[in-house]
């Protein structure tokens, strides 16, 4: 089992920055990648960014490139999502997810590649 705990969400103004954190824990697991997804009411979860467990491979959704950076701290088993120049349309619940099946970064963008999810953290951007 893998446990994921997100933090760092909140209410910010347009143009502000925010850093989300995702702490991973558990025993007898092999995580290949950690990803971030966002979800708004009535819509599917959409991919934002992912990073391999080793940290040597990253992938971003094209719509977020230039505004987000994903990174990880090996010592803390924590992944970060730095979001800059936030817009009101970025308002959503952001979820962290763990991929324990697919090592190839080709699979990082699909929510079906992830089998463990955090509880989500709300990000609200006011205009």
Please give a quick description of this structure.
With 127 residues, the chain is mostly beta strands.
How would you characterize the overall build of this protein?
The chain has 127 residues and is mainly beta. The chain is built from no helices and eleven strands. The chain is globular and about 45 Å long. The mean pLDDT is 94.
Q: Mind sketching the topology for me?
A:
Elements lengths: L1 E6 L2 E4 L4 E9 L6 E7 L6 E7 L5 E3 L7 E6 L4 E6 L8 E8 L16 E2 L3 E6 L1
Parallel strand pairs: 2-11
Antiparallel strand pairs: 1-3, 3-8, 4-5, 4-9, 5-6, 7-8, 9-10, 9-11
User: What is the N-to-C order of secondary-structure elements (H for helix, E for strand)?
Assistant: EEEEEEEEEEE
Shape: globular
**Count of DSSP-assigned helices:** 0
Biggest β-sheet strands, sense, barrel: 7 strands, mixed
> Nearest-angstrom radius of gyration?
14 Å
Helix content: under 10%
Proportion of β residues? over 45%
Would you count the extended β strands for me? 11
Low-confidence stretches: none
Q: How far is the N terminus from the C terminus?
A: 40 Å
Decide which structural class fits the backbone.
Answer: mainly beta
Taking all residues together, what is the mean pLDDT?
A: 94
């Amino acid at each position: 089992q893998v446990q994921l705990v997100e933090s760092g969400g909140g209410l910010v103004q347009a143009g502000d920055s925010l850093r989300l954190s995702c702490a991973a824990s558990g025993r007898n697991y092999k995580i290949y990648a950690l990803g971030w997804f966002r979800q708004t009411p009535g819509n599917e979860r959409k991919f934002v960014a992912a990073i391999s467990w080793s940290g040597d491979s990253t992938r971003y959704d094209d719509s977020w490139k230039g505004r987000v950076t994903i990174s990880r701290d090996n010592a803390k088993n924590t992944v970060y999502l730095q979001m800059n120049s936030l817009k009101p349309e970025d308002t959503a619940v952001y979820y962290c997810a763990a991929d324990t099946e697919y090592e190839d970064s080709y699979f990082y963008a699909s929510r079906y590649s992830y089998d463990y999810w955090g509880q989500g953290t709300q990000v609200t951007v006011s205009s």
